Each structure stands twice: as C-alpha cells, then as structure tokens.
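Late entry, evening session. Most of the bench is empty. Finally got around to the prediction I had been postponing all week. Sequence below, unchanged from the version circulated by S.P.
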Amino acid sequence: MKDKDSYMMDKDLTPSRKKAATQEDEYFAKKDRELLEAGKVRDKEEEKKLLRELHYMHCPKCGYELEEVSRKGVQVDRCTECGGIWLDPGELEILLSHEDIGIMKGILKVFSKGSTH
C-alpha cells in the first residue's frame, strides 16, 4: 500500500517520468534478482566443495575413514571401521582381469553400467 508521500510524488510526475521511474524500478529489481541468484549459485558451489572435502576418503556406508590398501597391484579403499572395500572406476575390471574364475566375471557383468540384471 502506498503512503501519502509516494502518492503525491506519483501524482506530480508526468507520464514520461512515471514510465522512466517504473523502468528504473524494474531495472534495479532485475539486478537485485540477478545478484540473489548469483549468490545462490556461489553458495551451492561452496557447499558442494565443502561436502566433497568433508566426505573425501570416508566410507559411504558408515562414515569412518578409508585407507588405501594394495590388492593384486591395485590400490583399493578399505574402511578402517566396517572393513568395506570401495573401488574407483576401472579398478574392478583390473582386479577381474587377474582372475579366470567364472563367478568373478559374472560379478563384473552384474555391476557393469550396461547391465540389465
């Protein structure tokens, strides 16, 4: 709701000045929205970076620290608490290339990206 002073100002403005004032208001409102959006993007990027730093080398199951251990010449990540083993992309294929066991090749098929099983 407009107060008395702003009503009197609007009343005193010519139509062209009212239009200019409206355009100016719209311009600054747009700039404010852009700044707010830029701040949100920056905040999301900072949050993503912080979360990555907090979770790096932590077990996705229990949250404890992961340690790198060597298994058949491959550095895999093992949880210091629950003992879970976590593999980076390509490590499972390297490990399985050392095996001639049919069940291990079957596991690879189950966990491959193109699998429908």
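Two things to note before I forget:
Strands lie at 66-71, 74-79, 85-86.
The mean pLDDT is 77.
Will write this up properly tomorrow.
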